Amino acid sequence: MSEKNPLPFAKTQSKAMLLWVLAVLIGLPLILPSATLASEILIFAMAALACNLLLGYTGLLSFGQGIFFGAGAYCAALLMIHLQWGLFTALLGAAVAGGFLALLVGALAIRRTGIYFVMLTLAFSQMAYFVAYTLSDWTGGDNGLLSVPRPQVRIGDTVLLSLADARAFYGFVAVLFLLIFIGARRVIASPFGSTLMAIRENETRASAIGYDTRHFKILVFVLSGAVTGIAGALYAMLLHFVPLSNIDLAMSENILIMTIVGGTGSLFGSLLGAGSIVLLGDFLSDLWPRWLMLLGVILILVVIFMRGGLWGGLASLFDKVRRSRKASVVNKEHVL
Amino acid sequence: MLNLYLFQILNGLGLGMIYFLIAVGLTIIFGLLNFVNFAHGAFFLLGAYICYTAVSLTGNFWLALLIAPLVVAALAWVIERLLIQRIYHLPHMFQILVTLGIALIIQEASVMIWGPVGKSVAVPELLRGVLVVGDFVYPYYRLFLIVFSGLVGLGLWLLLERTRFGALVRAGSESTETVSLLGTNILRLFSMTFALGVALAGVAGVLFAPLRGAQPFVGPEILGIAFVVVVIGGMGSFSGALVGGLLVGVVQSASLMIYGAMAVVILVRPYGLFGRA
């Protein structure tokens, strides 16, 4: 994104932010009617967070996130079904699959910048869908991949935790989300992260300083792909099922819309975005099967009126409150 | 055997001309307005559905071929005026996102109006049957596709190269500011170009309807194919859209191959066969 980061307090409240995330992670299953819904929110928040690394921090608009999500889901599911891989190895496999595909897509798409990059990611997304559709022996095609197991958390032969219960699974997803969230913040705060933001602000300048911007872009793409792959794998475990829709363009669009609605300037925004869109979908999809239309309307409204997304809106609201408080204090001093 | 290949290629040419119409509309819009219309596939879809409605009401395909693109263009004009014109000052990313939103709305609205199951449109009576030359057989409708799209393409070329409007569009593609400073109402030019590009997608939708019918979720697929065409041919190039469209149409029989072709082009000629750096 070439616009300036609209957020007034990106760094000052970093500790507070972590507490907010913790509060949300603990609060979600308490407020929501089902732990499954809460898990779904976190899984998509993971995918949106990975998308945000590209969009918000590097300025890359990718329509290919569904490729990595779907690849992670299929890969983990196939490894668990056919090779009886355990939980962590399957997740690792999904991360590798997502990262590897991101390397391929990234290496090709990044040869072009701007609008072409966007179009290429979309074209590859369509391609991935057709590949999944064609390989129906493996993916189940239109019917989807059925009876995906949800393995236990174990070390060696000792079972630490069974994830069969929805709340236990939520706990596992929450811990994973927290780790990924902290990791992503580390990445952003690192010199690597600053370089990404330099690329976002002005790629020509970043490369003129001497950074090989292509390497940086491919690397962040791989990182994003790996995290998205893990999210896909968790989604497969959540549903016990991998529908073909996991890898289609609509999935890429959904992840993108969650990221944008939440706000591209902050990782917490991705959690907000995923939460609000998943909840909206859960609430509306029974009442009104064409609720995607509303998603289109929301997307347009956010772009026109609230480009910082939900997070940007909240941030500027806080800022206003704080400023008006300061102003009133100053006024009183004057009077006294 | 040779006949089979020839048949495949000729079949592909018909489809390829449709892809050309879609891609050239996308290219014209991009050339002047400098953003990619992600709603292009949705407007294509709308063209096909309006064709279906017009044919089922009047029974006349030719009327549909006239009306549907006009309706689609009028809608595009309104959307451009009300929505897209508000965001020209923003980075291109936001224009893409708004057109993505429009695409979602059009797609879902189409399902609401015409239902989730595709509608089929009959081939017009005049064009039913096949052309037989020796042991070579070719449907009249495919022949018509090639000729008609060719004529539309020719007309478009004349419009762009030989008229004042075309000169303005071309000049605007080089430098919007200069054209604007010279006293042209650039916003009106933008609206007209957007409507024109979208009308081409509408024409393509109508022509596609007798082949595959109007399918509610075909938009993204068409958009993806149009992007492949444009990446292969080179964005902003009329001849690129034509060659890319035909190439993709012919190769389409093995649908995954077009993406392979695209990857090869990116590696060998990153700016497309006819593209400029």
UniProtKB/TrEMBL annotation, chain A:
MF GO annotations: branched-chain amino acid transmembrane transporter activity
Compartment(s): Cell inner membrane
PANTHER family tied to this protein: ABC TRANSPORTER ATP-BINDING PROTEIN, HIGH-AFFINITY BRANCHED-CHAIN AMINO ACID TRANSPORT SYSTEM PERMEASE
Keywords recorded for this protein, A-Z: Cell membrane, Membrane, Transmembrane, Transmembrane helix
Protein name according to UniProt: Branched-chain amino acid ABC transporter permease
Transmembrane spans: 16-35, 41-60, 67-85, 91-110, 117-136, 168-188, 218-243, 255-280, 292-314
Pfam family for this entry, one: BPD_transp_2
Membrane topology: Multi-pass membrane protein
Domain of life the protein comes from: Bacteria
The organism of origin for this protein: Pseudomonas fluorescens
GO cellular component: plasma membrane
